[in-house]
């Protein structure tokens, strides 16, 4: 029986989704009702699939180090921010090693979940982690130009501010390029000074 509560109906639809036959897992989400900030990653990895928790392994540790540096420790962040993804299921391993990126069909199938979350929550701030999330949220996955500033975006009829971060995976070498750490610092500052972040976590001391 379908729930009359739109939030519960969304979660039932999300966790019951089996649209993508090629993925190696089932939907993972860090759902937080009434969150005014949404974080969008790329897709869960095998550890996240096992733990049923987004960013549960090494990339997550690095990501939460960034957020702790601006006053949002991991557990409080998880309690306050809806952690979503471009694809909600672990796509599986790539033939060349590492995790397979989600396909365009898988991204399109999962887009309905993100659109519904935006419509339900009407967030003030969306944080996109990695180039793929940056493209889906802010229209471009070019980290060189997208990481740093605040972007004004619109999706699913909802207007919101967006900040793009590089992916915290240990396989990424983006932060090894001179100047990119400064861009990351600017992006974190844009998050830390945003009214939605200050409301959720208090002003930086």
Just give the CATH class. Alpha Beta
SSE order: HEHHHEHEHHEEHH
Share of helical residues? 40-55%
The number of domains: 1
Structural class: alpha/beta
Low-confidence region ranges: none
| CATH architecture assignment | 3-Layer(aba) Sandwich
Task: Tell me the fraction of residues in β-strands, as a range.
Answer: 5-15%
So what's the overall shape? globular
N- to C-terminal distance: 49 Å
Instruction: Give the neighbour order of strands across the main sheet.
Output: 2-1-3-5-4
Computed over alpha carbons, the radius of gyration is: 16 Å
Mean pLDDT figure = 95
Number of helices: 9
Q: Write down how many β-strands occur, each being a DSSP E stretch of 2 or more residues.
A: 5
The CATH homologous superfamily: Uracil-DNA glycosylase-like domain
| Biggest sheet statistics | 5 strands, mixed
Q: If you had to describe this structure to a student in words, what would you say it looks like?
A:
The structure is a single chain. With 205 residues, the protein is an alpha/beta fold. It is 41% helix and 13% strand. The chain has a single domain, classed as 3-Layer(aba) Sandwich (Uracil-DNA Glycosylase, subunit E). It is built from nine helices and five strands; from the N terminus they run H-E-H-H-H-E-H-E-H-H-E-E-H-H. A five-stranded mixed beta sheet has the order 2-1-3-5-4. Helix 1 (6-15) runs antiparallel to helix 5 (104-121). The mean pLDDT is 95.
């Amino acid at each position: 029986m379908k729930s009359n509560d739109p939030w519960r109906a969304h979660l039932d639809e999300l966790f019951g989704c089996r649209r993508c036959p090629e993925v190696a897992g089932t939907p993972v989400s860090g759902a937080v009702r009434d969150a005014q900030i949404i974080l969008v990653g790329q897709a869960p990895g095998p550890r996240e699939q096992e733990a049923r928790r987004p960013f549960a392994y090494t990339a997550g540790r690095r990501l939460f180090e960034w957020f702790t540096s601006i006053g949002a420790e991991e557990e409080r962040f998880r309690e306050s921010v809806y952690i979503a993804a471009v694809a909600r299921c672990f796509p599986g391993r790539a033939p060349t090693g590492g995790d397979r990126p989600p396909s365009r069909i898988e991204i399109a199938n999962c887009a309905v979940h993100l659109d519904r979350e935006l419509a339900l929550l009407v967030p003030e701030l969306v944080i996109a982690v990695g180039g793929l999330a940056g493209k889906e949220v802010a229209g471009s996955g070019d980290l060189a130009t997208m990481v740093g500033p605040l972007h004004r975006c619109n999706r699913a009829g909802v207007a919101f501010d967006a900040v793009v971060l590089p992916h915290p995976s240990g396989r990424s070498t983006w932060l090894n390029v001179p100047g990119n750490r400064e861009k990351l610092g600017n992006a974190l500052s844009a998050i830390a000074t945003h009214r939605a972040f200050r409301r959720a976590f208090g002003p930086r001391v």
